[in-house]
Amino acid sequence: MAEQTRREELLQIAAELFATKGFKNTTVRDIADAAGILSGSLYHHFDSKESMVDEILSSFQEELFGAYAGILAGTDDPRAKLEAAVRVSFEAIDHHRDEVAIFQNEADYLGTFDRFAYLADRNQQSRDVWLTLLREGVSSGALRKDLDVELVYRFIRDTVWVAVRWYQPGGKLSHHDVADQYLTILLDGITT
Amino acid sequence: MAEQTRREELLQIAAELFATKGFKNTTVRDIADAAGILSGSLYHHFDSKESMVDEILSSFQEELFGAYAGILAGTDDPRAKLEAAVRVSFEAIDHHRDEVAIFQNEADYLGTFDRFAYLADRNQQSRDVWLTLLREGVSSGALRKDLDVELVYRFIRDTVWVAVRWYQPGGKLSHHDVADQYLTILLDGITT
DNA sequence: GTCTATATGATGATAGAC
DNA sequence: GTCTATCATCATATAGAC
Question: Which of A117, A186, B88, B129 shows the greatest Cβ crowding within 10 Å of its Cβ?
Answer without folding.
Answer: A186
